[in-house]
Predict the structure.
Amino acid sequence: MHRNRAKTVALLGAISVTGLVLGSWWGWPGLVVAALLVTGVTCYVWLRGDAIVLRAMRAYPVGEAEQPMLYGLVRDMTVAARVPMPRVYVSPTRAANAFAIGRDPSQAAVCCTEGILALLDARELQAVLAHELAHIRRADTLTSTITGAVASLIMVPVAGDEPARASGEQGTGRIQRWLLTVFARIAAAVVRVMVRPQREFAADTDAARIIGDPLVLAAALRKLEMSTRRLVLPPEKDIMAISHVMIAGPLQRTGAGRFFATHPPMADRVARLEQLAGYRR
């Protein structure tokens, strides 16, 4: 928990120092302007980071009236995981996935896509929610939320999500693809420095202990692996920037999307869960 907080402070500090150094090239006026911009960006990322992630997935809030099963499972799992009740969201996305965000457990949110609600049974969904609540308990969501917001801001200079395809816009399309590659590499470097694959293993282990059956989560991960191969999220800049928060890697590992591959292989995660259950290979 303390390590995640220290990494987040270091990231925001690095952004501030970089902005001030760049502003100092223009003397005191540039330094003042840079200080104001740095302060504004830092406050925006800190206060609105979760909103940036949720907006990228077009998520909408739900309560017990709209999603009684999902809301009930989240409530039950918060008791088992010993974390406060988070806000609950659903993303209108066919691709099966889930994620948790928030600066701290008292301000956290859990989001499931419509695809995962249709794919998993109640017990498997419970295991996925336990995984997300484990991220909240471990304060992983602080790092992932701020990192996602920063990556999204880095990707802002990219004008659109898909290169122009019309014959008269070929030059614009090439420039756009080049910009996407450049800014994707920068954003991905930030994400990879801040988000390590080991955190998924740790959250899997905690989730297995919370629900008391590692094989249930293993079964859910197998389904998610097959589903994400069939239905991948489009390589839009906002989705690429926040892909690391999800339980399963949502992007194809081709093109700009390959830069954001932060998840360990699903087979390795399943194997570790089976070992927890006493299986030997």
Observations:
- The first strand starts at residue 60 and ends at 61.
